[in-house]
Structure to design on (357 residues):
């Protein structure tokens, strides 16, 4: 006879007969309504595949993505799935998305994708969606609720009424510090969808959100920014355990705002400098972040790489696979209630600059 085990019946059994400790682990999980277990996924981002002409593409960017795919495929045991964090293409062209998609097709395991502004602003995501599916969606995996957002939308006026051609619109948004760009946003429609989606999820369920731009305001001048970040954060804050993982900034950043932990990821294509470097003003890097070293221009792959993300008890540990530098690990510290760099968080341990070989 199959017996349905409920949380109440287990507590009652434990309280009255002392049988709780004899239950197999799988039954306890079932009993407490959670199927949560530790797992890993790989995260590759910002490949910026760029067509030169015809079948000719920028070799350096191709090699970055190929290397990430090859290394991710070597992971044993295999990760549960692969996320691609956006900016697969450089100028949103069909040829670039096809070429990048072909390289990603060699990945073992299920691939899910986030929309980047370089994928979007040529045809407003039309071809990308044909290849990779919806621009925002959610799914559940091993007791964790995952949400993917398209955070790189902007106003209708900028998108539809300002530029004479789609190519020009794409070029204006592609620049890092182009004042003709426009702040990114998730937007009303998608926030309404997010609210509906999250209303169905218990506040105890760990939540991991993927966006391309940071869902926090770092530096507007370079669009390291999402204009409605506070409104999105307000929807996430009621959850006890929330992580946001984002691409776009091409550098290690991490932060904690209330219940929300933030981890940025590196690019396979190139590193951006930290905004402080050029902005000549402080407070443009999240306060917890120990910056990566300045990239060494003599190593074309320096400060690039991919990520292995471990999820332990619903919390994120980002293992940054830096190709020409030391691996960095940023993990949530339950005592401090925020993510910390496992090696370099304490200033006394840091070497400045961290040595290149
Ligand atoms: Fe990018
Ligand atoms: Fe981007």
């Amino acid at each position: 006879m199959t017996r349905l085990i409920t949380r109440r019946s287990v507590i009652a059994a434990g309280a009255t007969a002392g049988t709780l400790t004899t239950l197999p682990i799988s039954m306890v999980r079932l009993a407490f309504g959670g199927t949560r277990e530790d797992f890993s996924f790989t995260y590759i981002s910002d490949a910026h595949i760029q067509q030169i002409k015809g079948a000719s593409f920028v070799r350096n960017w191709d090699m970055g993505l190929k290397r990430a795919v090859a290394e991710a495929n070597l992971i044993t045991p295999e990760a549960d799935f692969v996320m691609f964090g956006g900016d697969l293409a450089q100028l949103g062209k069909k040829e670039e998305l096809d070429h990048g998609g072909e390289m990603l097709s060699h990945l073992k395991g299920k691939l899910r994708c986030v929309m980047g502004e370089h994928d979007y602003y040529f045809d407003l995501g039309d071809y990308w969606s044909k290849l990779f599916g919806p621009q925002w969606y959610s799914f559940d995996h091993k007791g964790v609720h995952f949400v993917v957002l398209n955070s790189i939308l902007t106003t209708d006026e900028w998108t539809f009424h300002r530029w004479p051609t789609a190519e020009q619109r794409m070029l204006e948004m592609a620049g890092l510090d182009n004042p003709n760009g426009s702040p990114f946003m998730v937007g009303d429609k998608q926030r309404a969808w997010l609210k509906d989606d999250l209303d169905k999820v218990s506040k105890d369920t760990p939540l991991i959100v993927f966006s391309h731009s940071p869902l926090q305001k770092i530096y507007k001048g370079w669009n390291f920014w999402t204009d409605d970040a506070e409104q999105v954060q307000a929807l996430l804050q009621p959850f006890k355990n929330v992580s946001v993982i984002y691409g776009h900034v091409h550098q290690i950043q991490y932060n904690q705002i209330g219940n929300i932990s933030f981890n940025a990821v590196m690019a396979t294509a190139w590193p951006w400098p930290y905004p402080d470097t050029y902005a000549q003003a402080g407070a443009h890097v999240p306060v917890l972040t120990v910056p990566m070293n300045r990239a060494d221009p003599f190593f074309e792959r320096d400060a690039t790489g991919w990520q292995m993300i471990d999820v332990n008890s619903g919390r994120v540990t980002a293992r940054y696979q830096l190709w020409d530098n030391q691996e960095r690990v940023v993990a949530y510290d339950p005592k401090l209630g925020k993510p910390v760099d496992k090696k370099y968080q304490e200033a006394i341990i840091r070497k400045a600059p961290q040595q290149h070989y």
